[in-house]
Design a protein that fits this description.
The protein is an alpha+beta fold. 39% of the residues lie in helices and 44% in strands. It contains four helices and six strands; from the N terminus they run αααββαββββ. The protein has helices spanning 2-23, 26-36, 39-42, 63-76, and strands at residues 46-54, 57-62, 79-89, 93-102, 106-116, 119-129.
Length: 132
């Protein structure tokens, strides 16, 4: 009986630890930052340079300039929600595609990540009108 109680407790603790780690994963934090329209929370995950396309503006930007441009986008299009519709996670690079909704428009957002030395960095962000 004690062994069963111990094993049940152990499984619970391991499962709980996995859930807590998943909630703090970089991908989850990036998704939350888009959902709240918070460019500041994206900054720790931006690479030193980012290939950034916001609607018709596209260029390679330093992370500080990319943060400003994303902040301007979020200000002009306040968030109503962000839903991930597809993701592909690998050990060295990953991407996810989502729909960012503002009060008046919907945008397709593609985010590409590179994982180096256990750090996740955003290398590319594409924000397009949903119909594009």
């Amino acid at each position: 009986m004690r062994l069963l109680l111990f094993l049940t407790s152990l499984v619970f603790l391991i499962s709980f630890g996995t859930v807590v780690r998943a909630e703090k994963s970089p991908v989850v934090e990036i998704e939350r930052a888009f959902g709240s329209g918070d460019a500041e929370k994206l900054l720790p995950y931006l690479g030193s340079t980012i290939d950034l396309r916001i609607l018709e503006t596209e260029n390679l930007y330093g992370n500080a300039q990319a943060k400003v441009l994303l902040s301007n986008f979020f200000t002009a299009n306040p968030p109503a929600g962000f839903v991930v519709i597809h993701r592909k996670m690998r050990s060295d690079n990953s991407f996810f595609i989502g729909t960012y909704s503002s009060r008046t428009n919907a945008y397709r957002v593609s985010i590409f990540l590179k994982i180096e030395q256990d750090k996740t960095r955003i290398t590319q962000i594409l924000i397009q009108n949903q119909g594009s």
